């Protein structure tokens, strides 16, 4: 990200100076400024930036018209809107016009640089995530099992999975969104689910509804803890988990999500536990 060439579009000398100070302090190169549509077209053609910060209110135009003009010149240029105006309708229009992020004035330096990092470091972030997430989710499952049941699991098999597979009886799926989207799944036999529930609750399960509730929350804890670790490594990931989807019964097939995942099988005191996890590249999800 250091050395990224940036153009600042704003009609306020104060805002330009303030934004420039933040960017320069963080190692970016400000190569131009503009305050009108014609100035935007000219400076983009002359400086060929990788990133543009864009005010929404400009003399004789607006940030969205300027964004469209920029992308007519080079659709690969990333645009981050920086504006005092921010509501659902404006954000929706910004997304429709291929704005990559939206930061509201008054500008917080950390918030702006997090947005810049998210927008400009996509490939680097994905490579790092790809190299680390399996280890992190395995550790989260091991830690969660240990804390909730005072027992350990032992991993015994790990392989890439790109096709659907059949559930052992109970599957809990958690969707993950953020800079990149993904899916985490825990799959167990019903016998294992009942034993795991009994260990967590320190009593026999009252019925299938309690088993489903406990396994759903167990999966939510594992996925949430793993995502929190990744977010602490770099705030740009901004990972968040969706409420779990729980399926149970015979002949349940787990569909492939359209990207490669990894199946990780573990032995526990309660039976085998299958952890399935994967992430994909995709459109940025705003914080």
From TrEMBL:
Origin superkingdom: Bacteria
SMART domains recorded: REC
4-aspartylphosphate carried by residues: 55
Keyword field: Chemotaxis, Phosphoprotein, Two-component regulatory system
Span of domain Response regulatory: 5-120
Gene Ontology biological process: chemotaxis; phosphorelay signal transduction system
Name the record gives this protein: Stage 0 sporulation protein A homolog
Source organism (scientific name): Lacrimispora xylanisolvens
């Amino acid at each position: 990200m250091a050395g990224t060439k940036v153009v600042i579009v704003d009609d306020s000398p104060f805002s330009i100076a303030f934004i420039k100070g933040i960017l320069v302090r963080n190692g970016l190169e400000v190569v131009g400024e503009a305050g009108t549509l014609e100035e935007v077209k000219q400076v983009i053609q002359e400086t060929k930036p990788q990133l543009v910060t864009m005010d929404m209110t400009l003399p004789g135009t607006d940030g969205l018209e300027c964004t469209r003009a920029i992308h007519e010149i080079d659709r690969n240029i990333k645009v981050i809107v920086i504006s005092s105006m921010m509501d659902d309708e404006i954000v929706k229009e910004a997304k429709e016009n291929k704005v990559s992020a939206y930061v509201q004035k008054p500008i917080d330096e950390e918030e702006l640089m997090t947005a810049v990092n998210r927008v400009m470091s996509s490939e680097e972030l994905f490579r790092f995530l790809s190299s680390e997430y399996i280890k992190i989710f395995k550790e989260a499952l091991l830690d969660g099992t240990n804390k909730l049941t005072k027992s350990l699991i032992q991993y015994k098999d790990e392989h890439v999975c790109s096709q659907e597979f059949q559930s052992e009886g109970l599957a809990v799926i958690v969707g993950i969104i953020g800079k990149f989207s993904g899916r985490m799944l825990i799959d167990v036999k019903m016998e294992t689910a009942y034993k795991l529930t009994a260990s967590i609750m320190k009593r026999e399960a009252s019925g299938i509804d309690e088993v489903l509730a406990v396994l759903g929350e167990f999966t939510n804890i594992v996925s949430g803890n793993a995502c929190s670790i990744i977010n602490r490594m770099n705030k740009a990931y901004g990972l968040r988990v969706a409420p779990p989807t729980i399926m149970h019964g015979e002949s349940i097939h787990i569909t492939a999500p359209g990207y490669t995942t990894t199946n990780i099988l573990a032995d526990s005191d309660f039976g085998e536990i299958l952890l399935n996890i994967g992430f994909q590249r995709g459109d940025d999800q705003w914080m």
